[in-house]
Amino acid sequence: MISAAELPADLIARVDEAVDADAERLVETFKDIHRNPELAFDEIRTSRLIEKALQNLGFGVTKGIGRTGIAATLRNGDGPVVMYRADMDANAVEEETGLDYASEVRVTREDGTEVPVAHMCGHDAHVCWLIGMAHALVAVRDSWSGTVVLIGQPAEEPITGAKAMVDDGLYNFIPRPDVLIGMHTVPGPVGVVSSSPGPKMAGTDQVDILFHGVGGHGSMPQKAKDPVRMAALAVVEFGNIVSRRIDPSQTAVLTVGAIQAGTDNNVIPSQALVKANVRWYDPAVRETLLSSIRSVAESVARSFDVADDRLPEIIMKGGSLPLVNDPQLAASMAESLAKIIGDDNVVTDLPPATGSEDVQVLKGPYPDMPFNYLLVGVADPQVYAAARERGDSAPFTPHNPNYVVDLAAIGYGAKVAAYAMLGLLGAG
């Protein structure tokens, strides 16, 4: 079983020196990515940025895995193979931070809808942490031995990118890893890192429910079968699934994120689309959620006399199992990091959350691969403290229009990533 080793003081100092010397470039790179966000599977510019940065450091790079994914390998003698992932995609959220490098990007999706795009989950920081960590590892390569595999992953937000990379032959391009780690921003103060064992994030499924009706004139609803009303009634009833069909002691979330139907005020459309997602830890809960969604949707449609061959379509778009940190690996990484950044800055008892991830899907054909996921605080400590004084748990939440990664977190996160990698590479 691989575990994290304690790093010598002189190596820590060399890492800090390398990252500090690179800090200005990393911050400018972060601002550039933040100004130019890209949605899932459109991360062409961001992927190219990672490709060039890692090629310049001597990594062997394979691009285009799972459409826009990157896999880069650096061999440095005998030793463990350590894989690290950073996700690249942004959110369809309009930024309201007021930063001078705020995103103003808008794009038209395949369905014709125009949406704003912004990095309101910190994936721009993740990319910079990967690049900064890679630079530091190369700077101290005389102090470690093994193989580093770095993954630039697309489409984490729809929970489809990791699977796309695995399905596209990721393991034809990289050696089998001995261990997989990842890092994610959280709205805690800069300086705090979580390495906590056990279940941390819920499993999830992205579900579309397409209602079929009969279109018509708004003045003659009796001649139509209104899918807008079907969707509205179904959404209301979906709200009862968790409260009335799931054991209250279980974790379950059902959220409707969008309802799309029609274009004109006086036209009843023929279709209505409901976009939902579910979160769960117990597979039995998942089955109840999904079967109940189908049951509700079909019952509503039947109440409008929809024929059996026109019942709602349930479209599964992507999902992942719960994220579970390996207990021994999480404990050893927490201990290793605590000796560098201090015990008070390392959280080891973070409770499970209902957010979801797909980084663990990168294990692919090796489900028993040891895995640990670090959470890194990115909020300005003063802003965080002020929020706590107001009674808020944090100054912002992921996907919020005011999600702000403090610039001090860019270099700090790169250092944490380098410490984590070196601890697993047996550096000394």
Attribute tags:
single chain; 428 residues; alpha+beta; Aminopeptidase; Alpha-Beta Plaits; eight-stranded mixed β-sheet; 9 helices; elongated
Question: How would you characterize the overall build of this protein?
Answer:
By secondary structure, this protein is α+β, with helices and mostly antiparallel strands. It has two domains: 9-202 and 323-424, 3-Layer(aba) Sandwich (Aminopeptidase); 203-319, 2-Layer Sandwich (Alpha-Beta Plaits), CATH 3.30.70.360. Helix content is 34%, strand content 25%. The protein has nine helices and 18 strands. An eight-stranded mixed sheet has the order 1-2-6-3-7-18-8-17, sandwiched between helices. A four-stranded antiparallel sheet has the order 12-14-10-15, with helices on one face. The protein has a two-stranded antiparallel sheet with strand order 4-5. Helix 2 runs parallel beside helix 3, helix 3 crosses helix 9 and helix 5 packs antiparallel against helix 6 (283-303). The longest helix has 27 residues, at 9-35. It is elongated. The chain starts with 8 loop residues before the first helix and ends with a helix. The model has no long low-confidence stretch (mean pLDDT 97).
